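Same chain as my last thread, 109 residues:
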Amino acid sequence: MKIILLAACFLLVAAEAQAVSRYDPTRMSCDRVQATIARQGAVILRYQSTRVPGLPLYDRYVRDERFCNMGEVRSRAYVPSADTRSCAVYICKRPDFDHFRRRFFPHRH
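reply #2:
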């Protein structure tokens, strides 16, 4: 019984991971990239690095913090698109509390 329950949990996690759509933003206008993220909530954007030829870059981009894991916040990022080199989008990331502390309390360790 425990094995069946464990297998069902793994299937649910796998199905959830497969549900995120993948796109190449360099084949879309910036407006279309942003509209796709807004419509779907979260997408994977995959594109080639401009600094290292042949290196694929990818990340999960979100509409708002509801699509982030607990403890993460929405942070602005930029991806290339068909009509611009820096299309503004959002990713989820953990807050950098050390950066906050250094900025507001520079002499405390």
